[in-house]
Amino acid sequence: MTALTIVDLDNAKLDVDHIADIATSPASTATDRKGNTKLTVQGAVDTIKSVNIRGAWATATTYAIKDVVSNLGSWYICVIANTSGPTFTGDAANWRVYQGVMGESLAADAGALLVGFKQAGTGSISQTIDRKLHEVVSILDKGGAADGVTDCYAATVAAASSGFSVRFPFVAGASNIYWFNSLFPTAELNGKRIDVDPGVVLSIPNNNYIFGSTVGADMLNFKHTTRIYCRDLSRYYDASPFFRQPSANKSLWLSDAEYDRSTYLALQGTGFTARQVAWSTGDTFSADTFTASNSDSFTVSGAIGGNIHMGMITIMPGDKISCGMAQTGTPLNYAIVRYQGGYAGVYVSSDIGFTDVKGFTKNVGQTQVVLSASPPGQGSHQSYAGLNGILSIRIDAWNKYSILLNGLVVDSETTPGAIYEAGFGILPTSAGQTTKFQSLHICRGKPPTAGRFIGIKIFGDSKSCPRHDAWPNYMKEALEFTAGLRNTVITNLAVAGTSTPDMLASMQTNGVAGASVVIIEGGTNDVQGGYAMANSLANIGAMLDLCTAAGAIPVVIIPGMWYGQAQAGSGGQASLNYGNAGLLRAAIIRVCIERGGFIVDPLDYEGPVLANYINPALTPNLTNAGDSVVYDNIHPTTMANRLTGMMVARKIMGILYPQNVGSKMFDVPIATFLNNWGGTIAAPNLQISAAYSVNCTGIINALAGAIKTNGTVIATIPANLAPKHQIDVYLVTDITTERVIVSINPNGNITITGATASSYVNLSGLTWQIDNR
Hints:
InterPro entries: Pectin_lyas_fold, SGNH_hydro, SGNH_hydro_sf
Oligomer: single chain
Domain SGNH hydrolase-type esterase: 459-639
Protein name: SGNH hydrolase-type esterase domain-containing protein
GO molecular function: hydrolase activity, acting on ester bonds
Helix content: 10-25%
CATH class of the largest domain: Alpha Beta
Pfam families: Lipase_GDSL_2 (PF13472)
CATH architecture of the largest domain: 3-Layer(aba) Sandwich
């Protein structure tokens, strides 16, 4: 045995230390006494656990063990060296999930169970995407398609059986038509919420599935307004969600003022008075005779092209008289209204083509004016031909009437004097022509409503210009179908940033033709720009004149209130001169009064327009306590736009449909004097109240040669303003010793008794109640 040397012992110690380094050193390598570097235990572990990140998996690529790749959102580690094939799925045996889950697992039916979900906020529970997605069932889940070809019946039935809400989603790039080939599952959808995305159409074979001929059609519950195409009709139908809304969401309420207390009464043909007047120059109505008359009708005829032959009856505001017409030949049929100082009305041809419809006015001593009425449907709808029409005359106020054919207003006019008589007649155009006005009846007490088309043009600035919540949108919503009104077209010519000179130029360029109503909203930018008030008023006045000349009704929206950035605290528009608009507002109102403009004043309905609603530094602090009316210091909020739209609609309706008895006194002058009596001292007048009471004022005085024998008729008033029974009253005269009796007769005659020496009678204080029936 070789003896150990000191060197051997030193080497042994170095080797032991080296072994200790390999076992315990945190370094990855250790060097022995001969200079050889070896892995330590730590280094070996590090070597074993290291991977090679290769990025996204690719085809035809060599992969080694521990290479890591990504595929479909998950990471995989190579366990078998390989050269990749055309698909990752084909190489799946060479890989194991390194981080995430297998795409195949997520794509499986139960894949949604592998993904968790927790709603934000306190109290939320942990759940899976699987549970969350089952809250709503789409028919796409059941094999339906938005392609306009696939029959979605079975898919809808399956979806309806799986949940409370059945969804028809919008699919980008698809036709978004859900097709139902021969059946629509009305019964299966009974009680379900049908959730149809905007832009989606349900194409159904037969309208019976919607309109109630199929079981369950009356119980369909649409979440949104849904467009349905009925292929049997080739028409679209918009199904409303409001049909099945709970009572808490009720939007239609009736107040006492909206109750219909109207009454319909039969009119006797024998109750009409036969009259005639020379067409088209006559001012004097003379007695005539009917060809026949009975309890239901009267028949008129006459010579060719001479007089209008008619039957007339006393009429009151709020009355609408109507009849059917049966004619021999094709005479012109007339609806006629008589008023103090003249008569007016409409004549219609009685042919199927409805070729002649004209309105006319004949004031005493003046040339007749004839205008074409041209109602919609003329020449295209036999239902509105004179031959097929129910002809109606409605008295909207003491001095306003409308004439209707089958409920459609063909003419509506304001008269210079009080209306007192109306009726129907003919002008024969060839021998032997007659018209029987039959089924005569009257409607009393109904608010003035009727089918009517109107066109509206709007001139204004940024407060009126087109945008999603502009007040014209709300105006249209309020007007459409109210009292039978239909909007033919609303042309919005308002432009942001414009002032009244720009609006006038636009009106001069574009005109107001085709507009029944013209709305002018301007002046705010005039104030902001320091524009001279006189110029603003001249521009508005010129626009009003253009409207009047074209026969359009002008409605002017007075500039509203606004404030500046300083009041708002910060932000919003840098509005100017907000404190300088008061004079212009008042002056615009005065111009409207003088030029015939109708006024909508935001000061009447907007309430205080204060920055307190958005600036907490102001006192009182009203921040978030209510709507600020203007959202950027000057432009209206949605609520304010809704208010303006409603107020403009109310104004238009008030113009088109005035109260049938009026809300103030209506003056009717006594203008017809007889037997050399007159009203030259103090013109006599009748004041009619909203409650149909008559109050007399003024003096009837004797002229040269006045007849004073007892019972002399000294004046006449319209018969519809006369009392139901004769009134005899002692009145003041200039001879205090004479007891003069003035009598007001039901036929409208005013007679005098006992006026031997008296030269006048004072009517002041004489009152009676009209028979308003």
